Amino acid sequence: LTTxxxxxxxxxxxxxxxxxxxxxxxxxxxxxxxxxERTNVIKPGGLLARFLHARTRAVFRNIDHLxxxxxxxxxxxxxxxxxxxxxxxxxxxxxxxxxxxxxxxxQYPPWTGCESLGLNGKFTVLYLGNMGYGHDFKxxxxxxxxxxxxxxxxxxxxxxxxxxxxKDEAERRGLSNVIMHGYVPKEQTGSVMSRADCAxxxxxxxxxxxxxxxxxxxxxxxxxxxxxxxxxxxxxDEAIAHFGCGISLRHxxxxxxxxxxxxxxxxxxxxxDLRARARRAFETAYCDLATLPRLDAVIAHSLGK
Length: 305
What we know:
- By secondary structure, this protein is of the alpha/beta class.
- It is 44% helix and 14% strand.
- Strands 6-5-4-7-8-9 form a 6-stranded parallel sheet, with helices on both faces. Strands 1-2-3 form a 3-stranded parallel sheet.
- It is globular.
């Protein structure tokens, strides 16, 4: 794996000790040191960064199979580290949610926050989870400003480094339709999502390849159409393109986001169709029943079976 960072060095040592008896599969969740450079944890192009890049290339010269979360991550890793290993097999296996946790047609208890937050009677766009380095919300706030006179609410449930800045900016603009709520226990997330009408996902342009938003899987499981703002070729963009379960927009297109939300709020048949497509995407590609056999196949391939 790639967490903790560079743990694959231990696997490389094991392979060198045991030779041909060992097959090394790198299951990549996080890209190191790339993510540390882009977040300025280490100096981009500095001595430490160059050393870590060299060590990662050494790992890539010795792995037998690479598993990535999306095509963008595969391109980044192969371009940066696999030049000496062009025949390296690569398999895309997205993250997933447990299908048993999201049974089809499940009913969830009402979320008590609906009434206290004034969500009743409003089309609710939900952002659930961490608001960290890889996420940008300017386009979302601009869309909220465009929809401020309409029965639409933007509900942020979670926390993270961008939480306070989004809250402050919404207050500065007087956006009463932007509602902030802290993290909720895992057992309440089904109730929160069942109240939403659309799920919001954002990804910064410079996070493509090093991050793969995982919140989409539970949103798809709950049948929530995706409103994605970010670069193309991400896992979210791929899901929307393949399953038609939402809209993929670029940063700055707040008018497109507002128009999409407005159309869903006014057209129940279109909203129902996108909900069905979202659930179908979960069952087809983003639950454990769909993804675990793909990991089994990678192991079998590496063993020559």
